[in-house]
Amino acid sequence: MNNDTICALATANGVGALGIIRVSGNDALPVVQKSFPGKNLVKQKSHTIHYGYFMDGEETIDEVMLSIFLAPKSFTTENSVEIAFHGSPHIGKRILETLIKNGARMAKAGEFTLRAFINGRIDLSQAEAIADVIASENEASRKVAISQLKGGITNEISLLRTDLLNFVSLIELELDFAEEDVEFADRTALTQLLNKIEVKLHSLIESFQYGNAIKNGTAVAIIGKPNAGKSTLLNALLKEERAIVSNIAGTTRDTIEEILHIKGHAFRLIDTAGLRETADEIEAIGVKKAKEKVENANILVYLADAGTKDFSEDIEMIKSLLRDDLKLIICATKIDEVVPTQYERIEDIFRKEIAHEFDFITISAVENQNIQDLKNELSSYVEQLKVAENNVVITNQRHFEALQKSLHAVHKVNEAITFQISTELLAYELRNALEHLGEISGEVTNDEVLGNIFSKFCIGK
Ligand SMILES: Nc1nc2c(ncn2[C@@H]2O[C@H](COP(=O)(O)OP(=O)(O)OP(=O)(O)O)[C@@H](O)[C@H]2O)c(=O)[nH]1
Ligand SMILES: [Mg+2]
Question: For residue 277, which phi and psi values (nearest 5 degrees)?
């Protein structure tokens, strides 16, 4: 590991009361010392603060406070200095330029955190949690990020991994004694452990739906024929005139995405172009985009004009868009224009034709009728995904994929035992499962994965 000295602005780039520049590496103290003649920094204790002037040669750049953290008791585990200056972006720039003149270099995105990981202070899932904590925008996302930062996922996984590792050792021992046909590893106990691991993996994998809802919000695609009232509904939900509404079919041509918070959870509402066959090239692109949005949505809110005589087109449309994991809400709209006795008839028509489970709501976006019911319905979707308090929630796509691969690998081990496949193969499958479990905490990793994770960090983190 290269311990050259890196520096970067740790605070947001803009005017503030204070700005902080971080310096870390073998020569952090000598590099800063060149610009801080007031005190002998090398002689100072760790976790001390020092007042003085930051100089570029003879020129005073700013009055600063230095915080010193000596290895290994720093974020990166290296010698580190934090320079707090008056929060002008220009001063920040001058200080960085001077530090580089003094022998430091600009840090790459996420390089401080990468060092903390490589030097063993945090594991990979904790490093990722730091990015999540910084990005958290509400209570729910803050809570799961903090629990991950404290090692939530790693703890759960590493216990299982240690148990499994014991078995691998025993099985490999069997391989060493292959000629003698002995079984060191109790297959029943191994199967029990595998079942335990499977249950755990399942529950972690399942928690991802909730985790994803917390982290990225729940995607709600608002779909229907032209003029069904989709844009009017979007506006009513947001309580603002966000999308253009008109009685001309085909008003919305692009997709419009807005965030709505309901009971502390974020929903990404997506208004789309009305679905129909169209000769208009631009509208046709909009229709294609609308369908794509449904593919990635969690909830499909399908709008059908309550005044429609024949719903067969709507029904066909819904059928073509449905998937098992999609929540469907059918809204009969513009109910201010029909008599209430019609509501049940409309619901019956849909119930007869659509086998997939759905909620049926009658609304008037213009008169704001039952919009709250729709909001409750959206919110209940997230509520039912919720995992028990204190349970670990997976929010990270990479973890989700590693867990799925682990589960698959565990299945394979189980198969190997059931079909009494060779010990070699069993050992191989076990190793495979271990490797995938190890990917989460970064016990097993490669440069490409690391590059991918840390390049998404901001510089200075
Ligand atoms: N009476 C009544 N009219 C409505 C209601 N919702 C929408 N409308 C009217 O229906 C027409 C179409 O509304 P839009 O919201 O533009 O419909 P859309 O589904 O977005 O249409 P496209 O963007 O063309 O696909 C407008 O004239 C709205 O005022 C409703 O609840 N009641
Ligand atoms: Mg519209």
Answer: -70, 130
